[in-house]
Design brief:
Layout lengths: L1 E4 L2 E4 L18 H17 L6 H19 L6 H8 L8 H22 L6 H12 L34 H16 L7 H15 L6 H15 L11 H6 L1 H14 L2 H38 L5 H11 L4 E2 L1 H8 L3 H13 L3 E3 L9 E3 H7 L9
Antiparallel strand pairs: 1-2, 3-5, 4-5
Helix pairs in contact: 1-11, 2-4, 3-4, 4-5, 4-8, 6-7, 7-8, 7-11, 10-11, 11-15, 12-14, 13-14
Length: 379
């Protein structure tokens, strides 16, 4: 479609309503679809054997928030986010860390609404978007409201942009078609394939002025949870998309230009299998590390009681200061300091700041497992 803004014409893309016509050909992809489903089942089942599945979800949500925000250009590390949440000073720019923190809040809000029985809908996506954007760098970009002006990706204006989504007057119609497909049961379709189609369609409509990439990635997890594919929100594809971001953007454009849904669906299914398998392995490593370290703490004699309390707290707050730990555990600072010394001698903690005052201590091996793949992208 040719659209106009003052003094310039440009081509805008208006996606054809889903499902694709002709349908996506799954010829040759059935084994991959089965592998992806099996990997997803193993991931969903791993929470049944974890000693604290809520802890695993809690930390994985933060990893996903970090990765998804890095794709958009933030430079925060996992340690930065954990320090910010512990009210310590992060090493990355505060705006970057706050943006990641808003993603955590948006994800938590959306999942809670789904658990309360609210349907996955345009209204819920608007609510999630408001949480995502309010207070962040995109807070001026009408949080929670579908756009009323033209946006674009790449370039300095629509005329030289890499991609131009539908004009604002087409957005409501495109979103209405999108929501109908979201809830449609005909034609029958694997939920993995449906999630793949929905992600591309949402990104192509680009219904908000900002935050579309992050919300589009959240949509995948929300759809899996809403449709009962997963009991807990433990699958996030941002690491896969970050590692393969060039191919990811190429395939989005392939769908738009050539209607090549098949290569995109194959890419997506590979991502589900790979990401679910990695998450299961990470869960097993975390269980092994926590079990090993707990036994070592238990063998420290008289110091074990308070050291165990500190060790338990570290699983949710793996970067701490003496003052923060004392407040949370309701112990004296000298008692906490002694417990920290115990964990330092065991090699469980290390001093993370190099300061004499205001020192921070990190559960290094635990953070290392969680942080695999979360190194900021080069500028």
């Amino acid at each position: 479609m040719t659209a106009r803004i003052p003094q310039e014409s440009f081509q805008a893309y208006i996606p054809i309503p889903l499902p694709p016509d002709p349908p996506v050909s799954m010829a040759g992809m059935e084994p991959l679809l089965e592998k992806a489903n099996q990997a997803l089942g193993r991931l969903d089942g791993i929470t049944l054997v974890l000693p604290d599945p809520d802890l695993f979800i809690y930390m994985y949500v933060r990893k996903e928030a970090l990765l998804s925000s890095q794709i958009e250009g933030t430079q925060s590390s996992l340690s930065d986010l954990l320090m910010y949440e512990s009210e310590e000073h992060p090493g990355a720019p505060l705006d970057d860390v706050q943006e990641v923190s808003r993603y955590v809040a948006a994800m938590t809000y959306g999942l809670q609404r789904l658990r309360e029985g609210f349907p996955l809908s345009l209204r819920l996506l608007r609510e999630i978007h408001e949480v995502l954007m309010t207070g962040g760098r995109g807070g001026h970009q009408t949080p929670g409201e579908f756009r009323q002006s033209q946006n674009w990706i790449g370039g300095t204006r629509p005329g030289n942009a890499a991609f131009v989504p539908p004009p604002p007057e087409e957005v409501d119609r495109c979103l209405g078609d999108f929501e109908r497909f979201l809830h449609a049961t005909d034609p029958p379709m694997s939920i993995l394939v449906k999630a793949a189609l929905c992600h591309v369609q949402f990104e192509s409509i680009h219904p908000f002025l900002d935050g579309n990439g992050r919300l589009g990635r959240l949509l995948i997890t929300f759809l899996f949870c809403a449709k009962g594919v997963m009991k807990d929100p433990s699958l996030y594809l941002s690491l896969y998309m970050k590692r393969n971001r060039k191919r990811y953007y190429e395939l989005l454009q392939e769908v738009r230009v050539n209607g090549n849904w098949e290569d995109w669906v194959e890419f997506f299914l590979h991502g589900v299998e790979e990401t679910a398998t990695q998450a299961v392995e990470a869960a097993r490593q975390i269980v092994a590390v926590l079990s090993k370290d707990r036994k070592r703490v238990e063998q420290t004699g008289r110091a074990a009681r308070s050291a165990l309390l500190l060790f338990q707290m570290l699983q949710r707050r793996p970067i701490i200061s003496i003052a923060t730990a004392a407040t949370i555990l309701k112990l004296s600072k000298p008692t906490v300091a002694k417990s920290i010394e115990v964990l330092l001698k065991l090699g469980i903690l290390n001093e993370a700041t190099g300061k004499l005052k205001g020192r921070l201590f990190a559960y290094k091996e635990y953070i290392a497992i969680l942080g695999i793949g979360t190194e900021p992208l080069p500028r």
